[in-house]
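Final report, Chapter 2: Outcomes

The project's central promise was a pipeline that accepts a single protein chain and returns its three-dimensional structure in a standardized token representation, suitable for archiving and comparison. That pipeline is now operational. To close this chapter, we reproduce one record exactly as it appears in the project archive, with the input sequence first and the structure output second.
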Amino acid sequence: MKVLLTGATGFIGSHVVMHLLARGHEVVALVRDEESARKLPWFDRVDFVAHDIRDGCPDLRGQGIAVPDVLMHLAWPGLPNYKDLFHFEENLPEGYRFLKAMIEQGVGQVLVTGTCFEYGMQSGCLPESLPTQPSNPYGLAKDCLRKFLQELQVQRPFVLQWARLFYMYGPGQNERSLLAQLSGAIARGDRSFNMSGGAQVRDYLRVEEVARRLVLLAECSSADGLFNCCSGVPRTVRALVEDFVREQGARIDLNFGFYPYPDYEPMEFWGDPERLNTVLGGRC
């Protein structure tokens, strides 16, 4: 299977590339900065196309590259600034134009990563059947992109796999993410670490497992629709950080309640992975 991948040098994408290669797939990575890609261990095993999707769609045939079997679109600049308007003012139209042009070039299967923020402030277990109610610009932009692509399917049929991601952690995570900051505090020998109260209930999955599931979904070439890519296991933020400190063998005081809870997400929510697990034959 030939896979064209955007966001290959990102947190999720770098792990997706490894899983694709391990399963024998041919990878074409669309990257803005080839120099950053050269630092990655799989650089010599993939084909690179230096291109910024803000400039439109690359002419793959003109570069001697056959139309891929599947496009995995993981790129989305500007995270984790969920409230910034550029998500729907810039990322949304640029992403849609790029994906539409790739489909017009002959790509028949597109996998796009969505977000749990499409569900908005709804609490509890979130199945794909719930109507979306995004409450921040990032969630709104992702939700609109999905709807745009579904309308495009009516005009020009293709397989659309919309994989909603929840919370991820692991190697390469954003330095501003919770566990990355905690890891830095431990490495510096800080005595304490400031955080929220930790009572939020979330759905966490290691990034390597997220990447594995995305690759398996891409291999299901006829599986069209919405898929929660999540653990399905509710877990408090407090439990997450306490387990992390214990696994690191560290001694650091967790200063719970220093920061207020975020106002752009509910206190308790997690995903229902049953649909993806069914499509993957129980391999979640």
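Archive annotation: The first strand starts at residue 2 and ends at 6.
This record, like all others produced under the grant, will remain available to the consortium after the project formally closes.
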